[in-house]
Amino acid sequence: MNIDRNILFTLQHCESIGWKSISLLMKAVPSPNEINMLTPADLRNILPISASKVNAFYKQFHSFDPLPKMKEYEDRNISFMTVFDHKYPPLLKNIYDPPWVLFFSGKAGLLEREKKIAIVGSRKADEYSSASLNFLLPQLVKENFVIVSGLAAGADEMAHRKTIELKGETIAVIGGGLNHIYPAANRRLAEWMKTNQLILSEYPPDTRPQRWHFPLRNRIISGMTQAVLVTQASRKSGSLITAEYSLNEGRDVFALPGRMDSSLSEGSNLLIQQGAKLITSSEDIVSEFAYNSYKNI
Description:
Distance between the termini: 25 Å
Low-confidence stretches: none
Number of domains: 2
Number of strands: 9
Shape: elongated
Strand order of the largest sheet: 1-2-6-5-4-3-7-8-9
Number of helices: 13
């Protein structure tokens, strides 16, 4: 098991490949350790990347020593788990494309909590999201829900901060490495959460966030929760991507109704038109969790 973990850890640090290439490698061999035996010619037949990238991957994979890097992370209070580990979140493991590795700082036990709900919304979320969360979160915290969001500006930040103010528990899933918090305005919040709550990412800690990371990050937010609540969202909001992931994985989607003349409500109102549950109180959410059994997802 440790060998398999080390192989995944190494693969995740190889810059020439991504999730799909790792998936193809895993399918091509009986066990991860046998990736060590693949020649450049073998790799060219397996991976849908250029010969130059194959050569770069082969060199990096065989020159990388995971143990010093693991020790470096441990010294910085950064841990990791792989999809092979028994503590890997079962809900997340069951999505179409679960992260091979999760890097995290904070209270890993929050991943094992049964009731987790994602709260997402526009980066431009206004007083309506703030007031709505003030109204909804006290009861959710009292009912021991863990609030999951993405540490972005706007609704995400509101969800984290208000949960913390209520002495609740919250998880942030970020789009870069743990050493590169974005946006910069939330770095102090992130540093506090690394000790007192939980922050995680599928990217190695020194990875700088890229624009394309954030839509992929959304699959983790939805994948590790039983439901997602959208507070405010425009028609092109990334929050709708999170909602779509949830729908595709058979999870519940909730949305707050918004003003007809507000662009920030176009996306959330559209979700309600398409079948998302309209939320007017925390009881609407609590009752859905009581009615549905998520243990078999």
